[in-house]
Amino acid sequence: MSTDFQTARAALGERLRELRESTPGGRLTGTALAERLGWTQSKVSKLETGRQTASAEDLKAWAEATDQPDSAEELLARLRGLESHVRSWRRQLASGHKAVQEAHNAAQAASTVLRAWESSWIVGVLQTPEYARAILSRFAELHQSPRDIEEGVRSRMRRQEGLYDSGRRYHILLWEPVLRSLICPPSVLAGQLDRLAGVVGLDTVELGIVPLSASLKLPPGGGFWIYDDAQVIVENWHAELWLDDMGSVSTHLKVWKTLRESAVFGPDAHRIISAARRSLNVD
């Protein structure tokens, strides 16, 4: 998580402490405030010390409980600043998958040089509709989100228009197990691998495969995108991190370049994709 995010969360916690200590009716202890809110004292402590991220509801309740309701808008503005870095899936998917896809479409459309590392699935910009549908369905089940799967798929497919923009360059690295992971029916994966093999020749795309047998200088770790060497987007099971501090960007760029040293390209990458395709025994 970025230093900027940690600093901002700590600053929000400090502001919450200031409100508690300046309650018009007299300074409240953490225990007294917790009683007013019906919370545990540990939650109050974690919010004030920046060890837990407050929800919008938490901040509104804090402003009311400290008899300073006018401070709610200020607190919510601080939270929005935090969420520009950390975007929880629960909040993002509350209105469905299309909006999430559109946010990524906009970020990629605004970028010229895009680098990706993925160790779990084929990256969205190279997915077939059937494969994308399988992936989004799995996440809808996990997060119990609205099942606007078809709208999400259509939005994700629009992202692929960038592959045919001569002014844009994609440098994508995939770990070989991604090519063999049956997170969809074998027939769908076969079609996806056929699509991937066709991408190898695109002049806007450099596709590298890190073989399972390759010597690695770093563990594969989770996937991420780097846009114009200025912003990193990292996904985990809870949230997406949109990071733009130079420490995070430089670290991920170093990781990407290190993993690239183990990748193969061109005909060698094509052979690995073809071997994975043949192993499916699907016509």
UniProtKB/TrEMBL annotation:
It holds the Pfam family DUF5753. It comes from the Bacteria. Residues 16-75 form the HTH cro/C1-type domain. Gene3D superfamilies: lambda repressor-like DNA-binding domains. GO terms for molecular function: DNA binding. InterPro entries: Cro/C1-type_HTH (IPR001387), DUF5753 (IPR043917), Lambda_DNA-bd_dom_sf (IPR010982). Signal peptide: none annotated. CDD domains: HTH_XRE. This is Helix-turn-helix domain-containing protein. It comes from Streptomyces sp. R41.
